Structures are given as C-alpha cells and as structure tokens.
Amino acid sequence: MDTSREDFGIAVRSAFLRKGTKQRFSLFVLSIISILLLFFDSMESKPISFVRSFVKDTIYRGSLIVSSPINGFSYVSKGIVNHFQLYSKHSELEKDYKILKNSISKSEFLELENIQLRKLIDEQTSSSNNYTSSRVMLDKQSPYLNSFIINSGSNKEIKNGMAALDGANFIGRIIDVNFFSSRVLLVTDLNSKIAVITEPSGNHAILSGHNNKPITLDYLPENHLISNGDKVYTSGKEGIFSPGIPIGEVKIVKKKINVSLFSELTQITFVNIDLGAPREKK
Amino acid sequence: MAILIKNFKSNFVSLVPLILLFFITLNGMSTVDLNFFTVNIHFILVYYFALRKPELLGNGFIFLSGIITDVIHGLPIGTTALTLLVVAGAASYVRVVTVRISLFTDWISFIPTLLLASLTYYFVLNFSDYSIDYIYLLKNSIFTLIFYPILWILISALLNLLGESN
To answer: Hey, which end of chain B has fewer CB within 10 Å, N or C?
Structure first.
C-alpha cells in the first residue's frame, strides 16, 4: 500500500515538477502563474488595467488578422450561395416592391399627420440621443459568454455598463473596456439581467438571458396582464440605462413568457453605444 | 540540397502542433459547436501531444494559448490556461505510469482528465462570479470524449504523413 502511494507521489512529481525534454517551464510553475493571473484579473488598479487593456487589444488585433482567411472564405461562400439564390430573391423583392409602393403613399400621409399632431402638443421631435457608432470586430461564439468585441474603447469615452444598441434596439451592455476595443455582453447571455417594462400591460420585470435558450421575463407580479405581442422596453429602474429603449416583443410558449428580440444578434455589424445613459458614481 | 529539404521537413513537422494549436486558439475555435454536438478540440490537442509527443508542444505554448483563449472568449484571464495545464499534467502523469500506450488506454485515461478539467473550470468560474451552463459543460465533456478517437486517428495519420513516426 505504501509503495503504491509512493509510486503515485513520484509519478505526480515527475509529471508536474520535472521539465521534460525541450520544455522550458514545468507545469507546476505555469499553474502558479495562471492562479496569480486570475488573482490579478480580479484586481482593479491603474497599472494592471493598463497592461490588461494593452494585452487584450493586441490579442484582438492578432485574432482579427489570423481569422481573416476564414472570414474571407465564409464571405466568398456566402456570396456564391447568394448568387445562386438571385433569381428567387429577385422575384420575392419584386412582389415586396409592389406592396411597398402601395403602402408608401399611405405612410407618407400618416407621417405628415403625425408631425402636425406632435406640433400641436408641443412635443420635442428632435433626438437628444448621444450615441457613438462602432463596428463589430470579433464575434467568436464562446460557449460560456455570449458577447462580441467592438472596435471602440476608452478612446471614444465608452465606459462599463453603457447600453449597446442595434439601430435603436437594445442588444446588450458594455462589460469590458480597453483602449481601442470593448466587449459587449449580449442580452442572451446567462449573466445578463436587465430591468424592463412591458407595454401596454405596464408590468415591470427582469429580462434574463439563457445562452442558447430563449430570453425570458422573470419576477413578474402574479396577476400580470402580459399577452402575446406586448412590447418590451428598458425601464431604467436600475439607474444605468435610459428608459424606453425597445428590446423585443413577448411570445408566450406553453405558459412561459419568452421575448423575441427586435434585432437578429448574429447579423450585427455596427452597434450604437449610448454614451448618455450611465450615471457614474463618483 | 537534400539535407536542406530534410531539415526543412523536420522543422515543419515539429511546428505542426504549434500551428494547429494557435490556429484554433486565435480563430476562437477551441470549442466547435455543431447544432447539438459540441467538442473541445483544444483539450484533445493538448492531451494528445502532452501524452504522445510532449517534445513537440511546450508547456509554455499551452499556457499562452490558454491565455489567448481567455481573452478572446472574455473569460477571467488564467481560466483556460489553468485548465489546459491540468489536462497536460494529467497526460504527463498517464505517460509516466503507462508502459504501453494505445488508443484504448489513452481514451480511458481521458475520462478522469476531462473530469479534472471540468472541475477546474467550475471552480475558477464559480469564484469569478461567472454563471455557466452546467448542462452545456457536461454535454461538451461527453462529446469531447466521444470525438477523441476520431481526432486521435486524424492527428496520428497527419504526423505519419509528415514523416513523424509514432
């Protein structure tokens, strides 16, 4: 028994402490460095943040360069597929065009009427949004974090917690800011919890992501009046996001209240970051 | 000339694991998701080379590829590095205690290795306040185990083709 225990100890020591042929570091030393890095990663100090930002920016750029052949190939293959679907798409678009042409005159009239009515109630029609636009730099599907990298960081005054929008629709928030890049945590991620309000039912709830499963509305009151098609907006109750940013609409499936997003998260190329929303604690 | 070609070939063969490792790392392809299937190629590569050809894949490179994966996937820096080192450690242990290595013994010893790696992931992410999908982690481990022999054969065939004998 003692001998087998000794053998086990020798084997473990040999595996972790000894440097093998052509090995410069032992596994034990590297494991200790990894643990130290994990420790430093949780620390917030200026020099560490500076180094972290520099390292992350460098790796993002490197990854962008290395993945460019694969991205190029996927772009070309999509182009080929689109080319073969050209005729059917053209027919569909022709039909859509006819329908749209008929509805344009109707919508123009409604728009005019809307402006006149707004003027009547003295509503401010000009937008007070303070957005900065960024391009999606890296969209690597991580199994553990639904997020992507954008090509703006602290250089564009982006800060943690700011809302990320696709057009005017809410899609996530900033969770990590570097000099020239930031990470957007998408609403579909398991770690995403957003305070929302439903319209017209007017219920407050928490929008929870579940990675690959549909997004749900949690913490609703027992006697809620939510029905299919209700719109979901940020409530701004947490004091981070501006209230009234559209997110999606309710889809009730087997008594479970799911939310279907207005934006298709896999198709996003540009995002708007709402710079005016956060109220920084000083 | 013949010596030059031979040297080039030998250098290229010794670089194949590194090229493979950093290609999947920088492309963010550590885990391949195909609808229901999800396979961690990173684990398989590290385990294979740490067990069979440790001289071709240094521990430092394994560590570095883990750090890059963490940055690209937005995990706390050090998580994947530590997990990959655990995988490499387990493979080194198996190499020390095993006399005759075969696909079957590799495969069987990969089960506790995957368990250890998943445990490391769980502990590190739990302490870092990250919520993770445990069902996904389990599914990923199972499919990685199932997929291991296929990649084992593919890598062995590739090395044989390039003239690196098993």
So the answer is: N
